[in-house]
Amino acid sequence: MNEQRAQQKEKLVADIKTVMAELDELVRDSASDVGDDLVELKGRLRDQVSAARETLSDLESRVADRAKSAARAGDEYVRDHTWTSIGIAAGVGVVIGLLLNRR
Asked: Which residue ranges does the record assign to the DUF883 domain (predicted)?
């Protein structure tokens, strides 16, 4: 999973770099040539931005799904192990209280 996430991140970074290169080319070409090349370049740029948005949207939905899954797992653990969870929370509270009291 981490490898897949890393590959998606690399693809997103590559897409963003491509978009930036297209923008640079657009700026350079727009100053000297406003013909058919500019129209083609704008179309390619639009396609690259669209692809980057889709990739970002996909990553966003996957992160949201994982966060929901983690929240559900935590909720289930607390419900299944209520007294253990209360004990851990109390212990953490005592440790934090002791640390704050030392100041």
From this structure: 10-60, 75-103
